[in-house]
Every structure is written in structure tokens, then in C-alpha cells.
Specification:
Number of domains: 1
Shape: elongated
Low-confidence stretches: none
Largest sheet: none
Mean pLDDT: 88
Distance between the termini: 68 Å
Helix content: 55-70%
Number of helices: 5
Number of strands: 0
Length: 81
């Protein structure tokens, strides 16, 4: 297994990792691997994230009563107050 060494790690970050590792019953090295895995899985391009969001929005079921609502009329009513 490859070895990864981090130099000049800020003290506050080290303490946080140490604290979380202790609470999760892990070593600091194990906790760092878990944190790296989580952060790398969340890495996604803006285009990919937008496409995923658009796909989710397109799959949503919107009630017919809501589709009948005209947002422009609400804005005009609000401006006229």
C-alpha cells in the first residue's frame, strides 16, 4: 500500500481529525483515508452537477393546480402593494 505523508499540517486541523478519529474508534491514518474518500467522491464538475440537478427536476411530479399558478401575477400584485 502506498505511503502518504503530510507535512506542516495546521495544528487545528490535526486536532479535529484526531478528535473525530477517537470518536469513530479509528486511528488518525484511518480517519484521514475516510475523509479523503468522502471528499473525492463529492468532487464533481459543475456541468455534471447541473445536469444531475436538471434530471432530478425533470423527474418531479408537479400537481396540475400548481402548474396553473401564474408567478407573474403574484409579482405584479406584490409590486402594486
Amino acid at each position: 500500500m502506498p505511503l502518504l505523508q503530510v507535512r506542516e499540517c495546521p495544528e487545528d486541523i490535526y486536532r479535529k481529525i484526531s478528535y473525530v478519529a477517537k470518536n469513530e474508534n479509528r486511528t488518525i491514518a484511518q480517519q484521514v483515508v475516510v475523509l479523503l474518500e468522502k471528499s473525492l467522491e463529492q468532487q464533481e464538475s459543475n456541468i455534471g452537477r447541473r445536469k444531475r440537478l436538471i434530471d432530478r427536476l425533470e423527474k418531479r411530479q408537479i400537481a396540475s393546480e400548481i402548474k396553473k399558478i401564474d408567478p407573474v401575477s403574484f409579482i405584479r400584485d406584490d409590486r402594486n402593494r
